[in-house]
Amino acid sequence: MEVNGKDDDLKTPLLKSSDAVVIDIKSVHSVNQGIRTITFKIGGIECASCSSSIESLLLDLNGVQSAIVSPLQGQAVVKYAPELVDVKAIKETVEDAGFEVKEFTDQDIAVCRLRIKGMMCTSCSESVERALLMIEGVKKAVVGLALEEAKINYDPNVINPNQIIEAVEDSGFGADLIGSGNNGNKVHIKLEGIVSVEDMNGIKNSLESLSGVNDVEIDVEGCKVSVGYDPDVTGGRSVIQFVQESSTHYQASLFIPERGNETEKSHEIKIYRNQFLWSCLFSIPLLMFSMVLPMIPPYGNWLSYKLHNMLTVGMVLRWILCTPVQFIIGKRFYVGSYHALRRKSANMDVLVALGTNAAYFYSVYTLIKALISDAFEGQDFFETSTMLISFILLGKYLESIAKGKTSDALAKLTDLAPDTACLLTMDDSGNTISETEINSQLIQKNDILKIFPGAKFPVDGVVIDGHGYVNESMITGEAIPVSKSPGDRVIGGTVNENGCLLIKATHIGSETALSQIVQIVEAAQLARAPVQKLADQISRFFVPAVVAAAIVTWLAWYIPGALGIYPKSWIPKAMDEFELALQFGISVLVVACPCALGLATPTAVMVATGKGATQGVLIKGGNALEKAHKVNTIVFDKTGTLTFGKPKVVNDVIFSEIEMEEFCNIAIAVEANSEHPIAKAVVEHAKSKLSNREFQTWTGTGSVVKDFTVQPGAGVGCKVGEKTVFVGNKKLMRLSNVVVDVEVEDYFTENEKLARTCVLVAVDGKVAGGFAVTDPVKPEAALVVSFLRSMNIDSIMVTGDNWSTATAIAKEVGIEHVFAEIDPLGKADRVKDLQARGKIVAMVGDGINDSPALVAANVGMAIGAGTDVAIEAADIVLIKSNLEDVITAIDLSRKTISRIHLNYVWALGYNVLGMPIAAGVLFPFTGIRLPPWLAGALMAASSISVVCSSLLLQTYKKPFTYSK
Questions:
Q1: What is the chain's mean pLDDT, rounded?
Q2: H or E element, residue 224
Q3: Phi, psi of 80 (to 5 degrees)
Q4: How many CA atoms lie within 13 A of 531 on its CB side?
Q5: Which distant-in-sequence residues (6+ apart) come within 8 Å of 447 by Cβ?
Q6: Among candidates 660, 664, 665, which has minimal Cα distance to 698?
Q7: C-beta neighbour count of 911 within 10 angstroms
Q8: Residue 259: what pLDDT?
Q9: How many helices (H) and strands (E) does the chain have?
Q10: What is the pTM of this model?
Q11: In the 3-class helix/strand/coil scheme, how is 249-314 assigned residue by residue?
């Protein structure tokens, strides 16, 4: 396998998210008439009669084209038309006949992503998740609190995205569709000249008949069409051209919708800001009337003017100013509480609504009592309710700004691709006919694009002309520009630093490396880390416990006060024991809000996965991130991991009187006919020893290679002109009766000790010379192993290579424990043996043969230049193929888990310290108490501090960087 060769190309798909829905490989979409095939097991078949009866029942279903049931294997193969019958009906038909359906995979699975509005804490996200999972047809649902998104896998035969959105809204949350299916290969078209709904439907029907079009969505009001397509068959440019040519009345143009995430975030920030400013408009004057002016006579004396009985001007003004804040600006807390209680749960809205209502309605009670009594003396708490709501809105405003920054790294990745590209139109001879600037979304496969110096590559492709240096740091984290020449691949989003390059587009839309990196990071940010289970468990009983604690606090202060157990001097002036107890109870309600607890894990995971992506380390979710910090043993594959995976000649030697030029030319002439990697290495080395003139002069003398034969596992033989030449190992020399003298034997022995393969060249029965070939060890390998040792991590090498080579490589890089001559399943067994001894194992590999071990390991790390199978099997992908990123992945994991634990300290610290103070523990001794409005400020501060703590991961720097 040639890992780093020029012929390499990005496979499709390069990367897949770890939580992707896996469809049974037996499910095949037929090209003809949309017929699909489903295969499943049936239990209880005892004879051929049973299978015949099942077949007849299935064939009676409208839409089933054929049904074959094997009585021996108990297996059914059914071909059906999905528009007439679904897999659910097929399954129920078999079960109704009295047979058991086994290994049945729902074939029609679709995916959609929703933006969820109104989630405040972990309790909210769990409620949304439960509501989604209760919907018939929903197979899987994951809700991310920090990302405010949900990813749903559903059966489109049973339910559609609009019905899912309705179900979310019924549970009390807002929902907008972000996208369904594969949005990466979708073009949005704006139509002009549409006069009726029939026109739109006609365009939809025409597009659905177009080859390569998968789905068509129309927006009649906006005159817009969204078309999903297969990039191997068609493209956005062709679709727009088809619409344009279908009628002279229509004008079709590319429409680029606003990025939903940014729009929603900015809208949310604007709402919280406006609500906070409106609340300040009422709360600041109220604060002046209740706390400031009464303290500076005579300016506040007018507030004490009695309107009727004990009712004063100040009380009325405070009531007037408080009411809009409580019921209009604070309406969101009532709505949230209603929906939370309706679904039999409790969240932050419930706590805020309870606290503010207690303060407000008690204050209304004092106002009414003052109106009807001429001797009542009591204090209202209108300022408590108003200031509480204001501080909570301020906290939510600041929190939404901070949360927006947690996905900055992902936004930067998304913005890497340029908006436009220069498309070349060429004739059959390769001459340029025209150059056109087009939108990058209209690029199609095999397009020829011109990339100017300083410009970004819009898509993945292969260089077909030109030479330059490309800065790939934004994708790989590698700062040193990479030389690119014809045949080299380029990655969309990277920068062409110098030289004008022509590239052929090979991967577009969702197939590009950049797009797949973004998809993996998004999936990782949406997935829950196991450490979050702590927050989930706490949130289930936290709010009811806080309400109970608030009631106990109120009773603990009110009853002793009413019975005169504590002195009256403890009660502040203008208060009674009921009011004092009420303030303590409200403070406990508010200060103990669990919002920060729910943000502790997801915000840290969001920042860490985004930061890792910009550093060239793709972490497929919180689960991988958490497991990596526990790793104490790393198992390395050899070829392509510790070594480059590409043979290279490290020295050559002459054993006869032949000239070096002639020796190299003979080797080139023979080995140029072989496709073996070692032969290619010999040719490359021999050519480097010669000038082009010398090679052309020698080959131009009429020398022709004849009678070329291959000896498997030994080498090749042929005639070069009049000379008989053999190129291979000692086995080939023996088979060809070529004498191998002591000097040649010593050369073999010396190089085998250094893990090198010797290639001998024999001319006319005598060894003329030889080449020593090796797979070079990556220069950073020894330093990485040494650094891992300093992190208390053991390194082990497992390889299918021979013992002598494996031992030599292990000695060179500093690895003490080696397992050699191991097959792929054996590698997985070695990993399991280590796990059985209590080790937490990470496997680092690049090939298909490493896949079983990558899956078996606690954490699988795939070298990015390796195979698709290895990349898909891994938990972490090292994009740059640099071993130093093994250290980065583990260190980033450790830093993130440490940050999550610190976040829990911040989140729980406010509650652990704040609740006793809010409950009045210090009041009898120090006179210190926590007013409700201050408790609200602390509650808001806890969420902000957790998000800001997570944002500090943005400053993460690699602990080890290899200096070349």
A1: 80
A2: strand 224-229
A3: -145, 160
A4: 29
A5: 423, 504, 505
A6: 665
A7: 22
A8: 62
A9: 31, 37
A10: 0.65
A11: CCEEEECCCCCHHHHHHHHHHHHHHHHHHHHHHHHHHHHHHHHHHHHCCCCCHHHHCEEECCEEHH
